[in-house]
Predict the 3D structure of the following.
Amino acid sequence: MSEFTPTEYNLICVATGEEFEDNGWTLDYAGYDKPSLIRATYAKKQLTVYEGDCGLYKFRDWLPMKRMLKCSSSPVTYKSKGLAKALGLDNLYITFNGWFPEVGATMPTCSFKETEAYSVCARTDENNDKILTVASAGNTARAFAKVCSDNNIKLLLAIPADNLNAMWFEKPLNDCVKLIACEKGGDYFDAIHLSNLALQSPMFYAEGGAKNIARRDGMATTVLSAVTTIGRIPDYYFQAVGSGTGAIAAWEANMRLIEDGRYGKNLMKLMVSQNAPFLPMYDAWREDSRDLLPYDDNRARRDVEIINAKVLSNRKPPYGICGGLYDALKATGGDILMATNLQAEKAAKLFLDTEGIDIHPAPSVALATLIKAIENGRVDRKATIMLNITGGGEQRFMANKDIWYLEPSHTFSLKADAEDVVAKVEALFK
């Protein structure tokens, strides 16, 4: 692993444009009292892609890092032949996050959530004695568990019990990783609520979700991979979204790459997608509403049960916040699309048949919307298109392996008492 010094950067409040220093784990700008994301502005304006055994950290000039962790992998971008031919596209580039050794993709959790976890955990102070706390619908929890286990970082995870099948690993984890769950019938929003109860204890601190610059800039490495491979900024960016954080990150990376000056000046059209019938951002966007429309809790939970892409089930996404997905779509001339389970299943089969690897339900949704956009003339067949395959190769990776599952230490009611939650999670780390 190559030599490393902490990254030089400052923070900017998106709403006000004011620049300030990071205190180590800043998630908001204290000088502004309305919801706004903050962004990192890096000292190095031209990106160096480092060679050698540094995995994701090949892009470290634009990651807010205090240290370099072991075992990371980078997204891999390649020009499609099989899928491109099937769709009649001249310049389709696939950014693959997962297990696909034939193209150089070696993420053992098979998800681009590794890009978040390796970036966020590299922002942590190794002398911090508090416990990182992460809520997840599944894939994010698996990624953080793997990264923290490999690097001996204390971690508390909260996920819905219905998604425990996502907590698979090649081997048992380090005891520094603990898992709690909300009872069956709960969803990602309920897992967030459970983690917030745990965070009432001073032993724990919040990862921060979309507000954490390290999470977004880690996800942005998908775009850095694509652009440095293609040699230019694409015309279109396709990705399925649960929170929209990956698309916000793509927009932010795009602006940095324009400032870099070597890859063109165009803004990619962000073409993001949701899995019907769970469509809170799709519905709001159709109404040109910065605010999400009313969505009954019970109906939302029912819709989450229906969709195959459970990781796309965020009921409280960073959509309307200043610098959030609404602003990203407006700035880039983008759109929110939708696909049904059946359409996504057909798309997944097409990808397997043409590219030779299985993909997760979420990127299958993205591919399904790309297919529809081509068929209805929304996308020029000669355009340069980036398709972000946010997870894949899981069937390939798990074949002929004895898979180990992380079980929750406690499963809590959706009406759990804060005092009970705090007492039990504190006991896990004593």
Remarks:
- The radius of gyration is 20 Å.
